[in-house]
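> agent: user asked for a holo structure of the chain below bound to adenosine-5'-triphosphate. Plan: (1) validate sequence alphabet, (2) canonicalize SMILES, (3) run complex prediction with ligand conditioning, (4) return tokens. Step 1... ok. Step 2... ok. Step 3 dispatched.
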Amino acid sequence: MLEIKNISVSFKDKNVLQNLNLEIEEGIILGILGKNGAGKTTLFESLYQSQKYNGEILWQNQKLLRKNISYLETENYFYPYITGKEYLSYFSKDRLPKTIELAEKFQLPLDKFVQYYSSGMKKKLALIGMLMLDKPINILDEPFNGVDFEGVHLLYDIIRELKQSNKIVIINSHIIETLFHTCDRIVTLENGLISNIFEKTDFEKLNHFKFV
Ligand SMILES: Nc1ncnc2c1ncn2[C@@H]1O[C@H](COP(=O)(O)OP(=O)(O)OP(=O)(O)O)[C@@H](O)[C@H]1O
């Protein structure tokens, strides 16, 4: 279980997260919906331990450590003169064949310098690297952005596999249909806390949902 307990984050006089609480069980794919500036990135960075916060984040009853979590950020930055294959070799070590298989499914030109990749290709490359880290908790921030039709379907399969391996996946997407398709549960982030929790059977209600 991942337990987020009374997390608060402030920037100067702005309280971005205010005593936010959330529990996520293993094998759950959780979607987060929030308006621009609602604090999703701040929450992800707190989970990733790159943002200072007040409160507690526990994984299996211990303080959550960076080694247990991976984070696919919205923007992906690469050294331009590295090839896709060289990049992935840093992550995969003993799993290079699996990595290359995934890259082939995504039709990534692995021998090209990353500087010649499109933004969708960079997203796919970063995603494969992240998957190879094989962490129990995985944050995907806008993973569908820039990814082509076939890539989206591959990503659906990958998320399904992560669920089958009992991993936690936290997804932020402004394309609600992608959340309907992938998530077991969707929460809304408003005024610094989790304002609603929708289970799969309630997703229909989100079609009419309005933020306060
Ligand atoms: N380092 C910072 N210093 C000051 N204010 C910040 C900082 N980081 C974020 N903020 C503010 O905190 C609020 C939440 O930002 P955050 O990036 O977490 O929102 P978000 O939900 O990820 O937004 P978006 O959907 O636009 O990416 C915003 O008002 C933002 O301006």
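> agent: step 4 complete. Summary for user: The domain at 2-208 is CATH 3.40.50.300 (Rossmann fold). Helices lie at 40-47, 84-92, 96-105, 119-133, 149-164, 176-182.
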